[in-house]
């Protein structure tokens, strides 16, 4: 039994052979010339009544409400096909679907913003498309062409444009993902893969109030990723592996968890879902260098550019956790912040360990943190000029 979307008129998946077409490295290949994916918007999709949608958009929260449509495509050894924008609906999977057993899946996260003139723009979707392709290669999944990724986002937002909220930092959060939907228990790259994009209106991460610094628990026992592993890929297994450590952080009264490297347990890597930055006393911004175990965040690279635009020196290098601790004590580390798609830029109030608490500055939102965050959100929402060509118009 293959996967299918419970949508009237949706094409039935193609039965998969015992073994997919693969490259010499065992990674799925299309087997035919690529077909342009149009992601045409289907007709007759039921829509939530306007009054109900307005009620959701008044207080969207994060990740709990979803739009009327989703984008969909399926890969088999014959290539990509069965694409379209269809009703957001449950999917049916065989209990033997490979993703349920071997976690062969990847995902992305990006946002669309409505500007004051009513137009809707995505922030750096091409960067997400490139990272999605890199993650797919690492997980032995077929690579979705980057233009098809962007097209799927464009078409979904056009179908659900009424779901894009207005005001402040409100946005439409977009979640593209790909998973092994083939019904087969053998351990090999799947011969059927399903790609979906769903969308969810999102309010400000901080609820429209003051930006609140988060406390960080330093994991003593757990590692997020190891050399040669999947740390640089955006796949669910990395996040699942962080949940026990995140629960430990909560048990110790902290908001998030920070991980050290898996070899020496000394070098700062990242939080469960965000990259870290340190503002030094000379104004330099330092962030842990990409090592194959750290996710190359789109917000991270944006912050590096914005910091440089604001006149700061930026460094990508290894950061010893002792430098974090001692820098807080000496004043060398003036501010610490985390960044990611959901919260954009979040000040870090304290690093917490058993018997120790390290606070940078006064533990509040630092001047540099606030300035970087303001500039980034101003670009995203159209309040500042986009000098780097990061915005992509959707509607």
From TrEMBL:
Superkingdom to which the source organism belongs: Bacteria
Amino-acid biosynthesis is among the record's keywords: yes
Enzyme class, UniProt record, top EC level: transferase
Chemical reaction(s) catalysed: L-leucine + 2-oxoglutarate = 4-methyl-2-oxopentanoate + L-glutamate; L-valine + 2-oxoglutarate = 3-methyl-2-oxobutanoate + L-glutamate; L-isoleucine + 2-oxoglutarate = (S)-3-methyl-2-oxopentanoate + L-glutamate
Keyword Transferase attached: yes
InterPro entries: Aminotrans_IV, Aminotrans_IV_CS, Aminotransferase-like, B_amino_transII, BCAT-like_C, BCAT-like_N, BCAT_family
Entry's EC annotation: 2.6.1.42
Pathway annotation from the record: Amino-acid biosynthesis; L-isoleucine biosynthesis; L-isoleucine from 2-oxobutanoate: step 4/4; Amino-acid biosynthesis; L-leucine biosynthesis; L-leucine from 3-methyl-2-oxobutanoate: step 4/4; Amino-acid biosynthesis; L-valine biosynthesis; L-valine from pyruvate: step 4/4
Pfam families tied to this protein: Aminotran_4
GO MF term (any one): L-isoleucine-2-oxoglutarate transaminase activity
Alphabetical UniProt keywords: Amino-acid biosynthesis, Aminotransferase, Branched-chain amino acid biosynthesis, Pyridoxal phosphate, Transferase
Residue numbers of N6-(pyridoxal phosphate)lysine PTMs: 234
Cofactor(s) the protein needs: pyridoxal 5'-phosphate
Coiled coil, from the record: none
Protein's GO biological process: isoleucine biosynthetic process; L-leucine biosynthetic process; L-valine biosynthetic process
Region span, Disordered: 1-29
Feature: compositional bias, Low complexity: 1-25
Family the entry assigns: Belongs to the class-IV pyridoxal-phosphate-dependent aminotransferase family.
Protein name: Branched-chain-amino-acid aminotransferase
Record organism: Pseudokineococcus lusitanus
């Amino acid at each position: 039994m293959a996967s299918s979307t419970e949508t009237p008129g949706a094409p039935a998946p193609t039965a998969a052979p015992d073994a997919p077409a693969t490259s010499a490295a065992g990674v799925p290949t299309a087997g035919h010339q690529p077909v342009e994916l149009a992601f045409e918007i289907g007709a007759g999709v039921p829509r939530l009544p306007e009054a109900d949608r307005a009620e959701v958009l008044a207080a969207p929260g994060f990740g709990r409400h979803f739009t009327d449509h989703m984008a969909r495509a399926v890969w088999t050894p014959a290539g990509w096909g069965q694409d379209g924008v269809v009703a957001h609906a449950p999917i049916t999977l065989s209990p033997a679907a490979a993703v349920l057993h071997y976690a062969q899946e990847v995902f992305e996260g990006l946002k669309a913003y409505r500007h004051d003139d009513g137009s809707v723009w995505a922030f750096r979707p091409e960067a997400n498309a490139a990272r999605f392709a890199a993650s797919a290669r690492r997980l032995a999944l077929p690579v979705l062409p980057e233009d098809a990724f962007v097209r799927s986002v464009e078409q979904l937002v056009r179908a659900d444009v009424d779901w894009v909220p207005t005001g402040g930092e409100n946005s439409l959060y977009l979640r593209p993902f790909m998973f092994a939907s083939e019904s087969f228990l053998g351990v090999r790259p799947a011969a059927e893969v399903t790609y979906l994009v769903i969308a969810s209106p999102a309010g400000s991460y901080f609820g429209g109030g003051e930006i609140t610094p988060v406390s960080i628990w330093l994991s003593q026992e757990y590692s997020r990723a190891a050399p040669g592993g999947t740390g640089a890929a955006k796949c669910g297994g990395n996040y699942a592996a962080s949940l026990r450590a995140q629960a430990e952080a909560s048990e110790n009264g902290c908001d998030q968890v920070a991980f050290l490297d898996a070899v020496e347990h000394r070098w700062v890597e990242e939080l469960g879902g965000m990259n870290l930055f340190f503002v030094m006393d000379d104004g330099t911004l330092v962030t842990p260098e990409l090592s194959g175990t750290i996710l190359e965040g789109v917000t991270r690279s944006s912050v590096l550019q914005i910091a440089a635009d604001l006149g700061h020196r930026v460094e990508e290098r290894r950061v010893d956790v002792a430098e974090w601790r001692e820098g807080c004590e000496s004043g060398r580390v003036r501010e610490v912040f985390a960044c990611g798609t959901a919260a954009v830029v979040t000040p870090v109030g304290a690093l917490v360990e058993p018997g120790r608490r390290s606070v940078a500055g006064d533990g509040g939102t630092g001047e540099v943190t606030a300035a970087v965050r303001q500039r980034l959100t101003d670009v995203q929402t159209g309040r500042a000029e986009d000098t780097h060509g990061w915005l992509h118009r959707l509607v």
